[in-house]
Write a structure and sequence with these properties.
This protein has helices at 34-47, 49-60, 67-78, 84-102, 112-123, 129-147, 177-190, 192-204, 208-211, 256-266, 288-302, 314-325, 330-337, 342-349, 358-369; strands at 3-7, 15-22, 25-31, 219-222, 224-228, 231-234, 238-241, 251-253, 375-376, 379-380. It is mostly helical. The chain has three domains: 3-60, no CATH class; 67-147, DNA polymerase, domain 1; 177-349, hpI Integrase, Chain A (Orthogonal Bundle), CATH 1.10.443.10. The longest helix has 19 residues, at 84-102.
Length: 386
């Protein structure tokens, strides 16, 4: 703890010295007025001597742009890359989680230690690892943009070396084939509209917001049927043009069973009508929360899957597993489910998609046993693999 000592020399004005420990040594700083001395004492008691003097130097230096001003400029710039909803989410997260800690401070003087303290003290105690990473990504994006040589708004990005909490990976959830068949049968006992929607989700791997926004004009029936993502049904916003990412705008073919269901639903509809509607809704538009609460939960119970606690998103995972079992490659799966990068597909599903196809294992066995192709001194001497 620091302390203050008042000095009253006989031939000069009084001064006030702040006494503190710096390392293993006693140190002091003298001021001409008591308020500056009290301010330093409070900072040393709260943050330590080094941080206290850095903070005082920051206050005394020309302030320049604040973090709040920087955030506003960055958010305006990001509008060209984001949907209105995503932009609103970024703004909400900034003002809820970043502004209270950083907003009033000069952006040029934010340090790596400041960012680490924010993550450790303000975020990690209240949020999970993924949410901490999401909030940190906003700050990182702001400073990366502002520190680019083409802008030079701040001298550096203090977010580069932040140690973030580790995400605990959990196993990807999906239904087995037997579970899916039981759930499909249960759905047709509960509600036919809901059953058709569930079949589409399992057949395409689409997110429920994408499926409930599907319009007739986005279905192409050329003998083989294709569906296109062009709109998303967002909570609070309704159906809006867009997708989760550029890769989300995708065109995929559907299975024969799904195509038969779609043809049945398309009868009598116009190009701008929605394919999946809920007869119990005043607008006819499916609300994902209604699907889950009124129909999904009941079908899960009827199918005997209550102990597994599946969610509608499990059908997306189930689709990926079925595609892999059918022999689809990872790049094909990536494009089909709309991941921007294949690394996302591998990160999410890699542990579940590690099983090699039987024919691949047969060829490996041939090689290991010496019955397949062999190379001696650079020449192939064994028979070709079948």
């Amino acid at each position: 703890m620091a302390s203050i000592r008042e000095n009253r020399p006989k031939t000069a004005e009084p001064t006030w010295s702040v006494l503190y420990r710096h390392g293993n040594k006693q140190a002091s700083k003298t001021f001409d007025n008591p308020s500056d001395a009290r301010d330093l004492k409070v900072l040393i008691d709260q943050f330590g001597a080094d941080e206290a003097f850095r903070m005082r130097a920051e206050r005394a230096a020309p302030q320049g742009i604040t973090v709040r001003d920087l955030a506003e400029r960055w958010l305006e710039y990001k509008k060209r890359d984001l949907t209105p909803r995503a932009a609103a989410d970024y703004r909400r997260d900034y003002y809820n989680w970043l502004d209270p800690f950083f907003g009033h401070r000069a952006a040029a003087y934010i340090t790596e230690a400041d960012v680490q303290t924010w993550v450790d003290r303000d975020l990690s105690r209240r949020l999970g690892a993924k949410s901490v990473g999401d909030k940190h990504a906003i700050l990182h994006g702001m400073f990366k943009w502002a520190s680019a040589r083409t802008r030079g708004i701040v001298p550096h990005n203090p977010c580069k070396e932040t140690e973030l909490p580790k995400k605990v990976k959990t196993s990807v959830k999906g239904l087995t084939m037997a579970e899916w068949l039981a759930l499909r049968e249960a759905f047709y006992q509960v509600n036919e509209d809901a059953a058709d929607l569930a079949l589409f989700l399992a057949s395409t791997g689409w997110r429920i917001g994408e499926a409930t926004a599907l319009m007739v004009r986005n279905v192409e029936d050329e003998g083989r049927m294709y569906v296109d993502v062009s709109h998303v049904n967002r909570k609070g916003s309704g159906v809006v043009a867009g997708a989760k990412s550029e890769a989300g705008f995708r065109r995929i073919d559907v299975s024969a069973e799904c195509a038969r269901m779609l043809r049945r639903r398309l009868i009598g509809l116009g190009p701008n009508d929605y394919v999946f509607t809920n007869s119990a809704s005043p607008t006819g538009l499916w609300e994902p929360s209604t699907f889950r609460r009124r129909y999904w939960a009941k079908a899960v119970r009827l199918a005997g899957l209550g102990d597994r606690k599946p969610t509608p998103h499990w059908l997306r995972h189930t689709h990926v597993m079925l595609c892999h079992t059918a022999g689809m490659s990872l790049p094909e799966i990536q494009r089909r489910i709309g991941h921007e990068h294949i690394s996302t597909t591998i990160d999410v599903y890699g542990r579940k998609l590690g099983e090699a196809a039987p024919e691949v294992m047969d060829r490996l066995d041939d090689l290991l046993s010496g019955h397949g192709r062999q190379v001696v001194a650079g020449s192939v001497i064994a028979p070709e693999l079948e």
